[in-house]
Amino acid sequence: MATSMRIILFCRANLLSLLRSRSNSSKRVKTYSNINSNSNTGAKNAKTKNERPISKVVLSDLMSESVQEKGSDEGPVSKVVLSNIMTNGVLKEELDHHDVIAERLKTARRTVLIKTDNIDHSVKKLNQFGSPENILNIKKENGLYHMVTFKDETHIQNLASSLENSNVFVQRFIIDTKAKKKKEQNQKEDQELCLTKQLELCENIDEQLHCLYKHTHLDETNSLLIFLYYSIIQDVFRTLSNGVLEPFGSCVNGFGMNSSDLDLNYIDLKKDSFERDLCPMFSHKPESVSINRLKSIKTSLRKMLPIINDGTVIAARIPIIRLSLKPVNFQIDIAFPGDRQGPIISEIFYTYSLLDNRIAILFAFIKRWAITNGLHRSNAGHWFSSFQLLALVIFYFQQRPNSSIPSIKTLLECNQRYTSTDKQRVSTPLYVIKSLTKNPSFESSLETLLKEFFEFYAVFDFRSMALSLLMGHTFQKTTITSPIQCEFPFEFHNIMKNVDSKHTALLQTQSKKALILLNKSKSTNELWGIGSCLSKDEQDKVDMKISIKQLFID
């Protein structure tokens, strides 16, 4: 226990050093508060420093080319989801997590959201203010929307100045009622096959997992929509406070889904950085922020932004303003006062997603599987949250032989060494992180990894052993009050203390059922592979008398 506490305190010391480095660097604050000047500089530097080719990189569906380093047979076969980190097949390793967010925000500031029956007609009208660079379509429950990105932010300013309403949102959301509806085409467009049918048509489980990932992961269109709302909320907050809003969570950690909401961290620039970052880490009492003050901020936001359907103030250790937005039924959580833990955790997970994208592909299935089996819900409770499910997947990858990802402790130590030699940067380049893992293996197929994941947790001794994402291995359990214990470097308490014995047992039971279903041969008349794991009817048919040893195939 004492050794574990010393390790946690050591990593917290590294974290505080990291926080101070970021607080002393004005560039990081300006990344979010004055995006235009700094993003250009960062992009310029990225082109001139440490550009290294990647071997065997398969790009995501958002990108058009795949690049393979000639003569090299090392490195992961992975999909790079974030399109902004590649240029001509070369990884910009100086373009870190903050730079990626800055580039996305810069693009969002050049974008307007349009609802129209004839996008071609509307774009012709927009041409008088500037040249559209890109148009993305996004279908929501209440209709089809279009996001039009201009080549320059001045084009947005030209458009805004032509509108009678000065409201920041009204200037970025246009309903073109004058556009004439397009005539119906003679030939109907083919309907996209439903996901279940697509999974049935796949040749193997690996194809199924890729298909599900493509169907559910946070794509370019939904990411731009999230950052469009972020840019609007950010602009409004500048008129209400002296702080900035910083995104964290699934929308920026490399594991986002198309259903992801936006989590924002409020950073008070006037507050002492040490007090801002350290106090929330050791405090388990509600912050001294006045709830009435937050209600006042919520009321002001609703007056300034007609997109807000509803707003709620959630009193907690770190209070939250939860906003429900229209027109696309979107939710934003703003933490007051924010600390740097959330963004740093997001950056660590983002790094893992780049090191081995198989983690993201498996997580996309595990989350959907957990929802099907009652292990996960969107609201808080005695079940697993999305963060906890991701922690289970990452820990499984950490403890594998020849793991492709290092422990969080190793990442923090490496980051501290790197920043000591270069005060202008905080994040460690990806090629340095890759060197931390000894002989990493990327040979296992997705099918093998998935079966190993279920086998690992189906037989895991949760009564006596605990998980440590900090160290990347198990340790003797130190609590008897929680059915499952998981150690994380930025919290003293068990991050899975909310999960009860019912859902811990359910995790193991459903993992065993999943193994049985995954080992069934493909049938033309029945669901098979991951499709059967996502069907309650198929799981109810499973015979639980079969042992795990009989099931698992190396």
Automatic annotation (TrEMBL):
TM region(s), chain numbering: none
UniProt keyword list: Signal
Superkingdom field: Eukaryota
Signal peptide per UniProt: 1-21
Single GO BP term: RNA 3'-end processing
Domain Poly(A) RNA polymerase mitochondrial-like central palm: 206-353
Region of interest (Disordered), residue spans: 29-50
Pfam family, one: MTPAP-like_central
InterPro entries, per database record: MTPAP-like_central, NT_sf
Polar residues composition-biased segments: 31-43
GO molecular function: metal ion binding; poly(A) RNA polymerase activity
Protein name: Poly(A) RNA polymerase mitochondrial-like central palm domain-containing protein
